[in-house]
Every structure is written in structure tokens, then in C-alpha cells.
Amino acid sequence: MKFRVDRDVFADAVAWAARSLPVRPSTPVLSGLLIEASDAGLVLSTFDYETSARATLAAEVSDEGTALVSGRLLADICRSLPAKPVEMVLDGARVSLTCGSARFSLQTMPVEDYPSLPEMPSATGTVKSDLFAHAVAQAVTAAGRDDMLPVLTGVRLEIEGSTISLLATDRFRLSHRELEWDPRTPDVSAAALVPAKVLGDTAKSLTAGSEITIALSTTGVGEGIIGFEGQVAGGVRRTTTRLLDGEFPKVRSLFPSEHLTVARVDKAALIETVKRVALVAERNTAVQLAFSDGVLTLDAGSGDEAQASESIEAQIDGEELTTGFNPQFLLDGLTVIDEAVVDLAFTQASKPVVISGTVQDGAAEPGFRYLLMPRRLLS
Description:
By secondary structure, this protein is α+β, with helices and mostly antiparallel strands. The protein has helices at residues 7-18, 71-80, 129-139, 196-205, 267-277, 327-335, and strands spanning 2-5, 32-38, 41-47, 51-57, 60-63, 65-70, 86-91, 94-99, 102-107, 125-128, 154-160, 163-169, 173-180, 182-183, 189-195, 211-217, 225-232, 235-242, 261-266, 287-292, 295-300, 308-313, 315-318, 321-325, 341-346, 353-357, 368-372. The protein has three domains: 2-113, DNA Polymerase III, Chain A, domain 2 (Roll), CATH 3.10.150; 125-242, DNA Polymerase III, Chain A, domain 2, CATH 3.10.150; 255-372, DNA Polymerase III, subunit A, domain 2 (DNA Polymerase III, Chain A, domain 2, Roll). It has six helices and 27 strands.
């Protein structure tokens, strides 16, 4: 194997492929990055039996061949290389990398022990890359992080015709985002439970191109796979991951059909006020929100400890109420809403609030909703 490649293109592709390498691989070869050189160029791959990454890029290939080297080490080396072409040569059990006057020699791992990457399923449709990345970033806000509840660490992706719905919950909050896309089959209907971290990282990493191809295959319980592919300046990036096994809770019904109180508040003012008041909130205690007479008053702290109180303007339609929320969870939802003004909709103080961007007259409904459970207030 011998090839010559642009330093920036190579370093970017190596970093992208290596980002999904496991921190503690079950076998040493899974820490490797597979380099395949042929007349078609280079293919860089990583795989841990759950998630695969595959980057193709153009290169001047003198001798075809394959090598498996430490992915994280190669990524670290590439980041530090001077701005000159990279040449890599396989010599026996080692690979030599030359860039300008910099030279590295890397030990290879046995290619024959490396697992075969899964095939990309047939394309289900395409979506604008920036729109998808933004929608996913909003949805994963509410995804769980407790590996003891693996179903809740995923995002449920539902496809119905030209609409994709993204749902995530950690039992204390719930996010729902809808967006339009271009399906290959107009009446397509499918659902998948995708690991939230993989989905978030992948969507963010594929924004260089104009669109992302989504390929979904649900062949059976625990056997489903989803793939994402996008064009970049240096070639093509492709990620696949196994779907999570388990039944995602039926959460759509948690969004109430009507509300008794709706408060309209400037988002930036509310975020800054929550941040200030929460400074005195003890760990795992709520910030109190009281809605009355065109004013939203926030309070935190109690007894002999530090206390804080601040009021901001609010347009309130309906009954006055007082409730409380985990301040960080409240901020998480507010900060991913696009609109400058938000609606906080309640059925009653002890029930969840639904937070969304304010809809102007004639405008479409906001694509993102965030439901948050209240916290018990300290007396």
C-alpha cells in the first residue's frame, strides 16, 4: 500500500472516522482505523459492532493495499502535521507516514481480525442537512443518559410520508420535533429507536453537504439498522448504527389538547432571569415561577439560606398559578427554541408545562415542543 493525499482532507476524514471509536474496546482491533487504498481512492473505516463510520476520499494511489492502525493515535498525528501532502506506505508490519520533514512509523494490527462493516440499507429518503442537524439538536435535549434505562437513551424517529417526527424523554421531560423531508416512497411509514448520542454526533458532522440520505432497515426485533450518508468537499461520509431494542413509551398523549393558562414571555429575559435566580437554588431544588397580573416572578432559596427573587413582564391568558421546575431542565428547553418569544402553556400548576415558540399571526405552528414535569416546591 502506498498513497499520497492532501493533508487537510486526510486529517479531516481520519478525525471524522475516529470520533466514534470506543473508549474501552472489547478487543484491541476495535480501536483500529482501517485504511483501504485502491484505484478509486481511499476508504477509512471504524466499527465497534454497534456503530460504523466510513469516509471515502480522493488520493494518488501508487500501490493498492489495506492496513489497520490505531485510530486515535493516527488522528492525533494528523492534527499536528504541517500543511504539506501526506504520504503513507505499508512496509511489512508497520506503516510509515511522511509529511514534509515529519516522519512517523506505526505498528499495524491484523486486518484479518477486523469485523466486516454492515451494508448501508436502501435509501429511505433525503433531508436538508442543516435542517436535520438543528432538529436533532433540539430533540436530543430531553434524551436520557442512564444506561440502566437504554430505551430512554434513544430518540424515536417516526416517518410518515413527507414528515419526520423526533421524540425523546428521560421521564422528567419530553421533546417533540417535526420536520419535512423528501421520501423515496410518498406513503412510507416507519419508526426507529436511534441512540441519541450517535444521532446527534452524526447529524452535526454531516452538515458540510447540502443534504443527508437516511436509510432505514427494520428487519426484526433488535436487528434493525439505520444509515446516514452525506457528501463533503473531500468525498462521502457514511455512518450506520444498530437500532435500540425495546418499546419506547407512548408519550404523544402527554401533550394536552387544551390549556387553562398560557403565559407569553420574552425568551432571552426569561433565560437570564432563571440563570440569576438559580444561583441560590440548592441542589435538586426547584425555582418557583408565579404567574399573575402580567408579571412572572421567579424565586429560589428558602429559610436561613441565600434567597433570590426577580420579576419580568409576561402576557398571561387564563388563571393565575404558581409552580416550580428544575432550573437546568428549564434552561435546556428554552435555549434550543428558535423564536424570540415563548409560550408556557399549563392545564394546572401540578401538571407539566408545554413550552414552544410563539406563533405569529399567519405563521406555521412551531416544529418543536418541550414538555417539562414540575418539581415540588419547598414550603
